[in-house]
Write a structure and sequence with these properties.
The chain has helices at about 10-15, 40-60, 85-95, 130-140, 170, 175-185, and strands at about 5, 25, 65-75, 75-80, 100-110, 115-125, 160-165. The chain has about 190 residues and is α/β, with parallel strands linked by helices. Strands 1, 2, 3, 4, 5, 6 and 7 form a 7-stranded mixed beta sheet that branches. β3 and β4 form a beta hairpin.
Length: about 190
């Protein structure tokens, strides 16, 4: 069975490559605008499913993986910063505090009527960060396309005091432990 990642994210592609399975990446057609007052967990799950569904409709005999991640601080969603000023603001707000990352994961096969959904939670406790440390980090890593303004798989790990969660790959955007379970349940075991 053909496996498709409904994403153009290089981060998710690199993560899925760890499983050593043949797959291809296709861009999903999904509106990522949050609904009014939509809780972070519902947003992550809704977008993961929308991404998977949009590709699965075009490829009904394929297993399609969709994923979306939302970061929240004090119940407020933190998006991708897009620019250095917003990245500085996000890291200043996170300094010395806990930020929760919620990753929605969907697996769909339109031809089989298969839709499974999983939501993974991961909490990052940030160190107290000086303005100089924030600027140095942003200059070196340029995480402007990452929710929360960091890359945990790179230098961003130096920003953290503690990590809490079941699947560290969820922090990078694709929870591989949960994905291997969903694939097995769909008849596509990773270690077959």
């Amino acid at each position: 069975m053909d496996l498709i990642l409904a994403s153009t994210s290089t981060y998710r592609k690199t993560l899925l490559e760890r499983l050593q399975l043949p797959f291809r990446c296709l861009a999903p057609d999904a509106d990522e605008t949050p609904l009014p007052n939509e809780p972070a967990a519902q947003l992550a799950a809704r977008l993961a499913l929308a991404k998977a569904r949009s590709v699965a409709r075009m490829h009904p005999d394929s297993l399609v993986i969709g994923s979306d991640q939302v970061a929240q601080l004090d119940g407020n969603i933190m998006g991708k910063p897009g620019d250095l000023q917003r990245a500085r603001q996000q890291l200043r707000a996170s300094s010395g505090r806990s930020v929760q990352f919620i990753t929605g994961l969907a697996l769909c096969c339109a031809g089989r009527g298969l839709e499974t959904l999983h939501t993974e939670y991961f909490t990052v406790q940030f160190r107290v960060l000086s303005a100089a440390a924030i600027d140095t980090y942003l200059e070196r890593e340029q995480p402007l396309d990452c929710a929360g303004s960091f890359k945990c798989e790179g230098l961003g790990i130096a920003l953290f005091e503690r990590l809490r969660g079941d699947d560290p790959t969820s922090l990078e955007g694709l929870p591989l432990i949960a994905l291997t379970t969903l694939l097995k349940q769909a008849g596509y075991p990773v270690l077959a």
